[in-house]
Structure formats: structure tokens, C-alpha cells
From TrEMBL:
UniProt entry keywords in alphabetical sequence: ATP-binding, Cell membrane, Ion transport, Membrane, Nucleotide-binding, Translocase, Transport
Catalyzed reaction equations: Ni(2+)(out) + ATP + H2O = Ni(2+)(in) + ADP + phosphate + H(+)
Record's GO cellular component terms: plasma membrane
Subunit structure: The complex is composed of two ATP-binding proteins (NikD and NikE), two transmembrane proteins (NikB and NikC) and a solute-binding protein (NikA).
Membrane topology, record value: Peripheral membrane protein
Record bears the keyword tRNA processing: no
Documented EC number(s): 7.2.2.11
First and last residues shown, out of full length: 1 to 256 of 315
Name this protein carries in UniProt: Nickel import system ATP-binding protein NikD
GO molecular function: ABC-type nickel transporter activity; ATP binding; ATP hydrolysis activity
Places the protein is found: Cell membrane
Chief location category: membrane
């Protein structure tokens, strides 16, 4: 499998200000390296606040203003700099965001799912949006709604549809399933798996260990901004013998 994404010794820190004066840098991610190959699902498991969403946002080029990033991210052999991130975001590289606040409150749902497109492209895009809505069990009248009219689960399914709209090559799914019913969870995982079978690389950030064990080729464990363990899913499935770090052991011990 060809390498798609290579995160190479990335560190992310925040400038901290008190009453407008810079105080210090707070490092949240330290020397993090990770790669995703074409057709591969890499799951990221880790405690809240360990830097998972920040890594996702850094790949997409949507880090907050006060963040400072070091290290390199390579996409298909090219340095993923700000210019390339801007070009690929929402297109070749798509995010299923953790927060439903990513929806624009003032924009009709179908318009934001379809995104910017030319008049010639529109009929094809519209068809794709309708297919995705059918697949994710979103009624036709959702198209004309605004975000405040959606339930949490509907908003999540809209975010999934938006991310998959432009047939991305790399999908970063940041906890895509909480709040979804079992059918929608299974549908989302099935869809991610199908995409991987078609060569798409998937970074699946999740707290659902069973989902990771079910669909991922490899699992990376995050802890306090470090990747403390990364291995083939089969290594995690064995009875804990191959798990080195106490956090990983504790995580997997909690499984029924
Ligand atoms: P998670 O693994 O739960 O997705 P995040 O990546 O969202 O964690 O956050 C990692 C850490 O970065 C958290 O401790 C959070 O407080 C910190 N952080 C996130 N955004 C900012 C910000 N804009 N300014 C300062 N710290 C931040
Ligand atoms: Mg997060």
C-alpha cells in the first residue's frame, strides 16, 4: 500500500496570554509521528484532551490562531503546507468534525453539504447529495432546513454526508458516531470500510474500542499528546500480551 499521509515529528503548542501579555507556550502535542497508507484505516484511541482533534485540525489546516506547529506533514509525497491544505481541504482531504458547531447556522443544509460548485457541476453534486441523504436516512425535507432545526443525530449525519460529498482520498473522522443510533453507527463504519477498500485512507478518531477493533488495520494510542503505542489491530486483539503501556493495558482491560 502506498503511503498517503505522513505526520513527521509534529509538535503543537499554544501561546498563552494573560491580560494581553504573552506568558508562555503550552505544548499540547509533542513529536508526534504517524502515517496512513492508501486503503488503510488507522484508528486513534486516547483520553479526552490528549490532542486528537488538534492533530485532525492541523492536517486540515484549521488550527486556532494562537497555535504554533512544528514538524512536517507530508501528503502523497508533497509537503502539506498552508497553500496545499487550502487547496485540498473539503475536497481530497475531508474532515468529519467532532463538533456539530462546524455547521454554518445561517446556511441551508443542502447548500452547505453541496458546497461551492459551478452551474454545470450542480446536477451531479445534487444527485450525490441525495444519494448520501438516502444512505444516511435523512429525509428530503432536511435539505431545506437550517442547523437549528436538526437533532444531534441528524446534524452528525449531515456532517458525514458533507465530508463524503467530494469523494475524498483521505478522510479524518473525528469521533463521527456518538449520538447516532446503532443503525447509523453501523452505516458510518461500513461506509468508511468500503471507502478504504476503494483506496481511501481513513484516520478514525474514536472512543469506541470495538469499532476500532472491527474496522481498523492499525490502532494508535494517544496519551497526553504522545503516540504511546501503534500496532496492527491483530496485536491489540491478542490477550494484552503485546500491549506495553499501562494506559493501553487499562484501556483494553475495560472491555467486556
Ligand atoms: P481531544 O484528544 O479530546 O480531541 P483536543 O485535541 O481537543 O483533545 O485538545 C487537546 C488539548 O489542547 C486540550 O488540553 C485543550 O485544552 C488544548 N487546546 C485546544 N484548543 C486550544 C486553544 N485554542 N488554546 C489553548 N489550548 C487549547
Ligand atoms: Mg476531540
Amino acid at each position: 500500500m502506498n503511503e498517503l499521509l505522513n505526520v513527521n515529528e509534529v509538535s503543537i503548542s499554544f501561546r498563552q496570554y494573560v491580560q494581553g501579555l504573552k506568558q508562555k507556550n503550552l505544548e499540547v502535542i509533542t513529536d508526534l509521528s504517524l502515517d496512513v497508507r492508501e486503503g488503510e484505516i488507522v484508528a486513534i484511541l486516547g483520553s479526552s484532551g490528549s490532542g486528537k482533534s488538534l492533530l485532525a485540525h492541523s492536517i486540515l489546516g484549521i488550527l486556532p490562531e494562537n497555535a504554533n506547529q512544528q514538524g512536517k506533514i507530508i501528503y502523497k509525497g508533497q509537503l502539506l503546507d498552508e497553500e496545499l491544505k487550502d487547496k485540498l481541504r473539503g475536497d481530497e482531504i475531508a474532515l468529519i468534525p467532532q463538533s456539530v458547531n462546524f455547521l454554518d447556522p445561517l446556511m441551508k443544509i443542502s447548500d452547505q453539504v453541496i458546497g461551492d460548485c459551478s452551474e454545470e457541476e450542480y446536477p451531479q453534486k445534487k444527485k450525490k447529495q441525495e444519494e448520501l441523504f438516502k444512505q444516511y436516512n435523512l429525509d428530503k425535507d432536511v435539505e431545506d432546513m437550517y442547523p437549528f432545526q436538526l437533532s444531534g443525530g441528524m446534524a452528525r449525519r449531515v456532517l458525514v454526508s458533507t465530508a463524503l460529498m467530494n469523494n475524498p482520498k483521505l478522510v479524518i473522522a473525528d469521533e463521527p458516531t456518538p449520538g447516532l443510533d446503532e443503525k447509523a453507527v453501523a452505516e458510518t463504519l461500513k461506509h468508511l470500510k468500503q471507502m478504504a477498500e476503494n483506496g481511501v485512507g481513513v484516520l478514525l478518531i474514536t472512543h469506541d474500542i470495538n469499532a476500532a477493533l472491527e474496522v481498523a488495520n492499525r490502532i494508535a494510542i494517544f496519551y497526553a499528546g504522545y503516540v504511546i503505542e501503534i500496532a496492527l489491530t491483530s496485536d491489540f486483539k491478542e490477550d494484552g500480551e503485546n500491549l506495553l503501556h499501562p494506559y493501553t493495558k487499562a484501556l483494553f482491560k475495560a472491555l467486556p
